[in-house]
Structure to design on (112 residues):
């Protein structure tokens, strides 16, 4: 049974977060899961993201790992939403994104 080192766990968590961005943004392309190929890609990406998160929480505190995973996904989806879908990029939204990044970095720094 694979148990990652703490460094590996953080790397797995980072990749899981990137995959979360992929499936979250990919949902837009599924048309409510009415388009088979995008839907299959979203489900596969989500499963891989969850699996990597599960491996990471073997070592990392579950609350920290989950918050970092969600934070990476939320920031990435928000930024890509602005870039790909012309969602508003107001100062308030950007400030909130910066706060999420600060929180994720704080959790990482305080967990070591």
């Amino acid at each position: 049974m694979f148990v990652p080192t703490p460094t590996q766990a953080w790397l797995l968590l980072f990749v899981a977060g990137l995959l979360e961005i992929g499936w979250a943004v990919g949902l837009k392309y599924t048309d409510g899961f009415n388009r088979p190929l995008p839907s299959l890609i979203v489900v596969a990406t989500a499963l891989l993201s969850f699996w990597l998160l599960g491996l990471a929480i073997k070592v990392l505190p579950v609350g920290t790992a989950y918050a970092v995973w969600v934070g990476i996904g939320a920031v990435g989806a928000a930024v890509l939403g602005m870039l790909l879908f012309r969602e508003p990029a107001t100062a308030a939204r950007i400030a909130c994104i910066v706060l999420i990044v600060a929180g994720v970095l704080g959790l990482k720094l305080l967990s070591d």
Notes: Helices lie at 6-26, 36-56, 62-85, 91-111. The chain has one domain: 6-111. The chain is about 80% helix and 0% strand.
